[in-house]
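Forwarding these from the shared drive since the link keeps breaking.
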Amino acid sequence: MASRPLKAVLTVAAAAAFSLTAVPAQAADPDPSVWTELSHTYGATGAYAYEPYAVADGFAPTPCTPGTGYRYVNQANVGQTDAAKPAALLYEDGPYGRRLIGVEWVVKAESGAAAPAMFGQTFQQPVDLPEVGSSYTLRAWIYKTNPSGLFSATHPDVTCSADSGADADADADSVPDLDLDLDLDGLIPDLDDLIPDLNLDV
């Protein structure tokens, strides 16, 4: 019969082994110096938590993509590897409108050019982006924790709603004309019926 200390050791070892199999692996935290660099990104994009500010500053929305959300692209920032100048902002639908969840740097994949790097991360392999073309990209999920990692290419919890293909703000030309041909006869009573005859004999 095993002694009491041996039983305790075996019990702890079994519990530890079970916990390792039961808990999914988490992405490694980035080097602390990365957060210092990202502080410039927070400072430059924090105001865009209010989505209309992003549009006013030249970030144009594109349709939603599962795992990425809505990409708002600022063409003036494409090609930048400056922490304070991401080329795109990433949004998802929230209870009070679109919610900022991340940022993205975009560099066009020129012929023979190597993938750039930022924050100790090499940009993802080239993808074709609307209105940009073949480009290297690097995303940082700084406003919504990503279980796959801060710089993961996609976010498992970002989905698109059924009507996400439509812009949040439809322009006036897309609103159909309403035929409001109302028959007002009978709705407004005759004034003669409302004002009684007054006998003003003096």
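-- next protein --
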Amino acid sequence: MSTSKTPSSFPELPIASIRRRLAALMYDLLILMGLMMVYGFIALPIASVLGGLNCQPEAMDYRPCVGGPIYQLGAVAVIAGYFFWSWRVAGQTVGMRAWRLILANPDGVQLTWRQCILRAIVAPLSIACLGLGYFSAWARSDKASWHDLISESQVRVLPKRKK
């Protein structure tokens, strides 16, 4: 019989591995693809009308609409909004929930808006540098990625629920 104690506070939870975090990110990319389809369905006609562009289906050329700065800014807002809302309100995205991950301050307090913004700015850079921001965590004892360090946050693994 196991006598291991279930962690009762955030600092006692194990730190998430890079593999688990990247797996959660893959789930989130699927969610983002769906959100972007809905965004495109709503924003493309609006961008076409407001921009006075010919983005008709028969033309089959949507580049003038989706290449515009307003459309792209809206796309960034949708993506950032998904992460901000998830991190700030629940402490986890859909992908993080699937992989039993939670994001918070080292004390277990939910992130501030400032931390969410810093994390959202640095996380894409962590990936854009050929994943160096993530993979550098393997060399660290605290498994912190660049965006963890900048935002002063941690990703931990939640225990399995008992049935």
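Strands lie at 101-104, 154-157. DSSP finds seven helices and two strands in the chain.

- D.
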